[in-house]
Amino acid sequence: MEYVIYCDESLGKGKYYSDFFGGALVKSSHFEEVKAALEEKKAELNLKNEIKWVKVTENYLQKYMEMIDLFFTFIEQGKVKVRVMFRDTEKS
Hints:
Elements: E1 3-13, E2 17-27, H1 28-44, H2 61-76, E3 80-88
Antiparallel strand pairs: 1-2, 2-3
Helix pairs in contact: 1-2
């Protein structure tokens, strides 16, 4: 079995937690389905650039919510697993 892992980080110091690292794991048997569905939805919603919550505006909120709903559907179906790690600011 093979997995494809997408990762991202957010480096910064918060009051309680800092330096978030996240990953989405997709089994190779579901990879093409998940990728195609997300790309199709992104095109349908006319989202051209990277989708980041920090960039959302009131005009784009509904589009972002539709994308995340689709993503969460794949999580519910067990086709995507998400893991987020972070550092406890007080212990560093």
